[in-house]
Design goal:
This protein is of the alpha/beta class. It starts with a strand and ends in a 10-residue tail after the last helix. A five-stranded parallel beta sheet has the order 3-2-1-4-5, sandwiched between helices. It has helices spanning 18-28, 32-41, 43-47, 53-63, 70-83, 89-100, 113-120, 134-137, 144-154, 168-176, 187-200, and strands at residues 3-6, 104-109, 130-133, 161-165, 180-183. Strand 4 (161-165), helix 10 and strand 5 form a beta-alpha-beta unit. 52% of the residues lie in helices and 11% in strands.
């Protein structure tokens, strides 16, 4: 086992807190369910870097049958980016321990350019040896091409990698290209699961990661 590859949102970083979610909804004046349906309906091309942040929020506004002012759109962009920037300290600590064990650690995240750029600057991402973002690859999970692109860059065989994501379809897609993969619940369970996989892979000298 050479590489442990982490998803970002819901794994290394926490999902958007309710306060941030409520703030975006309030700014638009939309009903919450309609807002989030529009947000996710238009998210994939934005995550793949095919549309700009302005285009994304313009599409959301049209679905909501409104027209955001330039000031509202700018604030939505800011709130959206910052809403994703809360780390999960236990996962961040686990990544540091994995690296000390001599394993390669990488990130594979569906993230638009603005969020990818922000994540390059936060100190708690420093231990990740490689960071792959859908916007920079123009492919998003769970497309198989994004996993093969990561493998090619790492110079790794699928069986040498473990992929971790909180979304089962993304985990299943990684398994389909030959990676070992785990659905993330929390860092404690992940620590246990990785220790088991590493022992099965017969890496000498690797005891518990804890």
């Amino acid at each position: 086992m050479r590489w442990i590859i982490f998803d970002f949102a819901g794994v290394i970083g926490r999902h958007q807190p309710e306060e941030a979610r409520d703030g975006m909804v309030a700014l638009t004046g939309a009903e919450s369910d309609r807002f989030w349906a529009a947000y996710w309906d238009h998210r994939d091309p934005y995550d793949r870097g095919l549309t700009t942040a302005g285009d994304f929020w313009s599409a959301v506004s049209k679905t909501l049958e409104t027209d955001f002012t330039a000031e509202v759109a700018s604030e939505l962009i800011r709130l959206d980016i910052t809403s994703w920037l809360t780390p999960d300290p236990a996962t961040v600590e686990l990544i540091a321990r994995l690296k000390k064990q001599g394993l390669g650690v990488a990130l594979l995240s569906n993230a638009p350019h603005e969020l990818a750029d922000a994540l390059e600057d936060v100190p708690w991402m420093a231990d990740l040896d490689h960071r792959f973002f859908s916007s920079r690859l123009a492919i998003s999970k769970p497309s198989p091409e994004i996993y093969t692109a990561v493998l090619a860059t790492l110079g790794a065989d699928p069986g040498e990698c473990v992929f971790i994501d909180d979304r089962p379809p993304n985990v299943a897609a990684a398994e389909a290209v030959g990676m070992r993969a785990l659905v993330f619940a929390d860092a404690v369970i992940l620590d246990q699961d990785l220790t088991r996989l590493l022992r099965e892979a017969e890496r000498p000298g690797l005891g518990s990661l804890g």
